[in-house]
Amino acid sequence: MTTNPTETTSTTSTTTGAAAGRAAPLSPRRAWLALATMFLGSFSLVTAEFLPPGVLTPVAHDLGVTEGVVGLSVSVTALTALLTALGLSSMFPRTDRRTLLVVLALGAVVSNVLVAVAPSIGVLMVARLLLGAALGGYWSMSLVIAARLVAADRVGRAMMIVNAGTTVATVAGVPLGVLISAAAGWRVVFWSAAALTVVTAVAMRLALPLIAPTPGIGWSAMGRALRSPGVAVGVVSIVAVIGGHFVGFTYVRPALSLLPGSDVGTIAVLLALFGVGGLVGNFAIGALVDRHLPVLLLAVPVAIGVSVAAVGLAAFAPVLAYPAVVVWGAAFGGVLNVVQVWITRVLPDQVEAGSGLVVAGFQTAIILGSAVGGVGVDAVGVGWAYLVAAVVAVAGGILVRSTLTRASARAAR
Question: How many CB atoms are located within 10 Å of the residue 176 CB?
Fold first, then answer.
């Protein structure tokens, strides 16, 4: 049989490109050490992301603005994270991904330093824009890097370690920031965050191998990924699930305040239970997702929806509140693991583009969930807003589960 020279060239190019995209083989010990530094990255960045809610009052007082204005710094961060997640690969198509991750961490350092010395709310907002860019880029790269460090059947476990940083930041990082603020002032909190992120950047530079970009990335690749069977539906579904969560989570304090006899201590205990549930859920679901993705892809969104509904109804049945926040925290603690493994299954050859779409979906959900939730709470009350959010989250779970069937059908052809 005569070989077509064009086919030979194409095959060779594809093989070479794929090989170039892989990280140098690592021993299991080095691979998990590298993932541990990425855990540190997610912990330091997410802690910085959610520090403003914990120090709203002193920041507002010091800068002479309202607490609502300071609260917008979280939305500003999410907006630039969305844009960076979509565009970073296109802007730096040839840059080694380890180098890019370290530069993003250093960008977060600069952001925290600028916030720490900010003389006005304008400087603080600009600094938060920079943090959003670091966050969006970090999350769009993290799945790509983790998938190169471990075997394909261990991606879920790898991301479990990386994503644990997010959960630990929620459970411990942000409360610790509040304590530091009370003892030494809010500016010291951001100096501390900057110092931690410097350590993170150095650790990643030392522990991560060189990781070449995925061949064929860019805006056109992002468009092709979105047009792949089931991907657009899946991303919209992710926005629905995560948006439903953030409708509830953004307004969880007023919801828990409706419990009979509720006080600050009760709310603190319930939020702590949510955080503990998140920590357990991240590790439990992360350990199972590689083998049980189809089940978890539906079960986790349903658990989020049912729990949100239960918290919304807890004013009428207070006993529901305690188990509901634990289940809610556990489901949300594991949802990122589930979604990240999902994208590697539906787009096995376009993980970098798919990861950017997933991060963009998450950030869109944060923006829409908090904004739409606020309108809903004001218009129809906390209870009804929670019930609608629950329905949206469950519907999103059903839709995203259906995309696996489409992906399987495509692979069979």
Answer: 16
